[in-house]
Amino acid sequence: EKEYSKRINKERLVDIQKGIHNYIIAGRRYLRTSYTAKQLAADIGTNTRYLSAAIRKKYDCNYADLVNKMRIEDAKRMLSDKNCTLNIDDIAFSCGFGNRQTFYSAFEKFVGEKPKDYRRRFLDEEDGVIIFD
């Protein structure tokens, strides 16, 4: 990856980063469980090594962490929404996680607490809201 970071010119780097933004963030492809770095690279017109280098330079993480960060931000919005009646597992799946364990691990990694605890901080029984586990 470092080798490719040195080889990529600034103009191409910016183009790849724009593609990442357009496909992953604006296009919300991070919600697709099976959307891979290889598919993103093909969509942008680059290879996975340049893609990885561009992600590292722009977002200071790898592809999996970038996608999971976006998914966790969606999950946080849903978990803190008093009108959301989905249980935690349904939130995980609607945010693009393929299984419960991956969601819980990513949530704790990026937020520092369990989804259930995060939700409880926003929703409590005093407000008449039922906590869904």
The number of helical segments is 8
Tell me about the largest β-sheet: none
Number of strands: 0
What is the alpha-carbon Rg in Å? 17 Å
Run of helices and strands? HHHHHHHH
Give the overall silhouette.
elongated
Question: What is the percent of helical residues?
Answer: 55-70%
Strand percentage lies at under 5%
Q: Helix/strand/pairing class, anyone?
A: mainly alpha
Low-confidence stretches: none
| Overall pLDDT score | 89
What is the terminal separation in angstroms?
40 Å
Description:
There is one protein chain. The protein is mainly alpha-helical and 133 residues long. Helices cover 65% and strands 0% of the residues. The protein has helices at 2-7, 10-26, 37-44, 48-59, 63-79, 88-94, 100-111, 115-122. Helix 2 (10-26) crosses helix 4. The model has no long low-confidence stretch (mean pLDDT 89).
Question: How do you describe this structure in short?
Answer:
The chain has 133 residues and is an all-alpha fold. It has eight helices and no strands. Helix 5 packs across helix 7 (100-111).
List its salient traits.
133 residues; mainly alpha
Lay out the secondary structure.
Blueprint: H1 2-7, H2 10-26, H3 37-44, H4 48-59, H5 63-79, H6 88-94, H7 100-111, H8 115-122
Helix pairs in contact: 2-4, 3-4, 5-6, 5-7
